User: What shape does this take?
Amino acid sequence: MKVGLFIPCYVDQFYPQVGIATYQLLEKLGVRADFPVKQTCCGQPMANTGCEQDAKPVYRHFVDTFQGYDYVVAPSGSCVYHVRKHYDVVEQTGAVQHVRQATYDLFDFITSVLGVTELPGRFPHQVGLHLSCHGQRGLHQANESEMTPVRDGQLSRLLRSLDGLTLTELSRNDECCGFGGTFCITEEAVSARMGQDRVQDHLQHGTQVLTGGDMSCLMHLQGIVRRRQLPMRVLHAVEIFNVALQPSGTSVSTFVPQSTTAERV
Amino acid sequence: MSHPQRAAAFTSDAERTTWHDETLWFVRQKRDKAVYAIPEFQELRQLASDIKEHTLSRLDEYLEQFEQNARANGVQVHWAADAEEHNRIVLDIMRGVGATSLVKSKSMLTEECHLNPYLIKNGIAVVDTDLGERIVQLREEAPSHLVLPAIHLKKEDVGETFHVHLGTPKGEKDPQNLTEAARRHLREKFLIGQVAITGVNFAIAETGAVVVCTNEGNADLGVNLAQVHIACMGMEKLIPRTADLGVFTRLLARSATGQPVTTYTSHFAKPAEGRQMHIVIVDNGRTRQLGRPDFRNSLKCIRCGACMNTCPVYRRSGGHSYDFTVPGPIGAILSPNIDMRQHSSLPFASTLCGSCTDVCPVKIDIHAQLYKWRQIIAQEGELPVSKKLGMKLLSSVLARPAIYRFGGKIAREGLRFLPHALTHATAFNPWAKARELPEAPKQSFRDWYQQTVK
Assistant: This one.
């Protein structure tokens, strides 16, 4: 199985520790991923702004980069959703169709392809899960509250399987955080207010570590947490799993996430 | 003014924003409870969507069938190509019977056509009889929601409005007392109404009857007391058969307010002895929307307002921030069809979270259509220049790995070494008004990978 690692542009530049954790976690699960260095971005920022035409060269570059892999795995449901859903505007060559089908969100890959729904490890903290809309409503990685009261999903299942981890019960289980790509700038007032409301829900219900599957939502929420100097760590879920699944013999029970951006590289 | 500007004005009152958000979230939760209680709810949605798509695919045939059956029932049927013609038809009917007073139950179509100001200018006394509509009418405001037109107002605001217009005691804010005052006031208006206008929730092709759903019974009271009933409908309101109606009445109230059914579901088929009934069928841009393959299924909308209640942006920006008769996500996909330039900011007033699509009882892919309108708005040159150029630049960087790598390094170094006051200057970085930027690391992931793995 040839797995290509897609590390979204802003993760590559600003959250390398998330990329590293993704690489290392896959390694611990027996997958040696390859990172083709010519990769850049999925093109979503332009397309969501209405500039799909401008994004086409970026789409082609993405397909060109990843067409030789059996699976393309990314720690971001949003970018994956974009590749799968919106790469329909370029010519549907065999390569394009293959890449669209082969691109997986990391936790979807772990759950659906690797068949892993429980992870051994320990993370003795109260964790608040932010469900990112594109992963949840777009890729159906978790139940939508619009459809059913049952709160289940790939990521919540994996998190619950860790020893010592308590998952926060929120008032609003799956409300959008308000990041929304360029929305966070063009609709700054509403975007910030939405993020503040999400953070408040977590704060009220005891979240110590705020996590999720998409660093873009978390970057926005972390920006609010840090501005307000709140007692809450923000970590991508892959960072939690990578720390919890230390090789045997290493103690993880004393792990306390040190800063809101985790370890510097 | 664009949506972001009006939204920023709304959110600047943080307390009221909280109240508005929580009030509508409460309605969304009531909807959820009602939906969870119906095991076949998703099947009903599919059925409703299929019936509507079928009807839209043969709209011409069903419209003619409807007209024929309505005429056979003794109803006078009128066709209006646009708002202006609709308004003129209503005025002509009123003049024809020498009427000067009109009572009107809830009708978003007449709002869309701006009927009230037109009639008032022509000497007609118009009274909206839906309580929420009456409140906003007294305040000379537009409704801010499809089914909850005065949801932007608190009971204190209503008390003040009624004090000024209906003479209730200053400071009265008890909902029971205020409703009683409105009731007494409206009863007088019902008694003198010569003509009654109603909206139409569903028009049934096989019978020529129209169905009006209300919670207050004001449509029935108006119609039964007046000599003339005018039912105004958009041409997309058709369903083929009476047997189809149950699918929609089960969905409508549950989606709108969480009620199993509206208090009144009134069928109007023919005029009473010695009275008149008219139906005005309005296009006003609907044919154009029907001709847009990507957007035609927005015409399936049954105006339940669920997409507004669930929309995290609507709840925090208020209905008036959309500056269009139909606010919220559905308004944002209907409005560019009417005037793309004027409403060009509305398809961007969304995070594309998709919740609107998931609650829509007739399965309109609202968030997908928002995305598609964005593409058209950009192609038509309606994007702000900064956005347009910024995206062109970004695309050219992201298609070239070396430039991307270099640009990323510059951005990180800038963030690391420039003073915080500069990187977080809100004058050119709106992000920083309420948020910190991420701390920039020395190394990118690819730097680490190439050093450590390769």
User: Anything to note?
Assistant: Chain B has a mean pLDDT of 96. Chain B has three domains: 13-152+182-287, 300-379, 385-452.
